[in-house]
């Protein structure tokens, strides 16, 4: 079935609809990873977004039962150059098309993703729609205008826990505040054998401290950190009480709580090959990143030290406090996607907790 991808600047791309049919709107963001489409589709950091995959052929290894980041897809739509009709992998249970259709996710293939990528890199992420219907231009413009990125990419997601859960461990007790925690980051915490309590982002400070944790972990997640005032106030109350590690969105929230500022990136970081330099140990890591906001280096508070920078654009990728047991990284130190080098982040957190 023929379909269209229409951007808010009026650009129109034609392709073929697969998965579910209908019409959807949202912010269009790109990911440059060669593999890992199953993890991308189910990553809470993409909540409510339409994801453009720049790699030209997608779907060749199908969908399996072991590589999900959450139990349900988080994206709103998927844009491809070419989808594989047939998959070949001993673990695969179904095709990408079947998976999207089952979960009522709209995809479109046959798009000139190279041209679309260049457009987004030049103008920044834009709102758009995917549809298999012919609507008048005026109606399409109204539909796009009504799209609220703040609402679409909010923390009100089924992928974010609403109840406290406990993962027993023999090590120190750690509270994880869930802003969109994904499996590959949870695995990093579990490998340190922490006695983990996963708590909703709305949990009060008194409830957190009632558990008498040895540390607090601030997870990855979607959205603009400046929209999360309640979470920022909670973190402010924890700063002088306990060791804290933030990752992804958790890094941004921690920095805001410490007096730093964040801003929207024109060229967002979403991909599996971002080079990050550890300024403390003079080492470079290849990292997985999923963020459209960054911490402003220009007005960083004097009690914070920049520990990591992105070698592509010199944006902040990590900080630590000069006197408090607090640090954070912007990239995602995933465990199950070939980024084992970055697992040192969790080891460092364990060292900080154990003194």
Helix-strand layout with pairing:
Elements: E1 2-7, E2 12-19, E3 23-31, H1 37-41, E4 50-53, E5 57-58, E6 77-79, E7 82-83, H2 96-102, E8 106-109, H3 113-123, E9 126-131, H4 137-146, H5 149-152, E10 165-167, E11 173-178, H6 183-190, E12 195-200, H7 205-210, E13 215-218, H8 229-238, E14 244-247, H9 249-257, E15 262-278, E16 283-295, E17 304-310, E18 316-321, E19 326-329, H10 344-354
Parallel strand pairs: 3-4, 4-6, 5-7, 6-8, 11-12, 11-13, 13-14, 14-19
Antiparallel strand pairs: 1-2, 1-9, 2-8, 3-9, 10-12, 15-16, 15-17, 17-18, 18-19
Helix pairs in contact: 8-9
Keywords: Amino-acid biosynthesis, Arginine biosynthesis, ATP-binding, Glutamine amidotransferase, Ligase, Nucleotide-binding, Pyrimidine biosynthesis
InterPro entries: Anth_synth/Amidotransfase (IPR050472), CarbamoylP_synth_ssu (IPR006274), CarbamoylP_synth_ssu_N (IPR002474), CarbP_synth_ssu_N_sf (IPR036480), Class_I_gatase-like (IPR029062), CPSase_GATase1 (IPR035686), GATASE (IPR017926)
Catalytic activity: hydrogencarbonate + L-glutamine + 2 ATP + H2O = carbamoyl phosphate + L-glutamate + 2 ADP + phosphate + 2 H(+); L-glutamine + H2O = L-glutamate + NH4(+)
Structural description of this entry:
This protein is of the alpha/beta class. The protein has 2 domains: 2-152, Glucose Oxidase, domain 1, CATH 3.50.30.20; 165-354, 3-Layer(aba) Sandwich (Rossmann fold), CATH 3.40.50. The chain is built from 10 helices and 19 strands. The strands form 3 sheets. It has a 10-stranded mixed sheet, with helices on both faces. The protein has a 7-stranded mixed barrel with strand order 1-2-8-6-4-3-9. Strand 13, helix 8 and strand 14 form a beta-alpha-beta unit. Helix 8 crosses helix 9. The mean pLDDT is 92. One of its GO terms (biological process) is 'de novo' UMP biosynthetic process. Belongs to the CarA family.
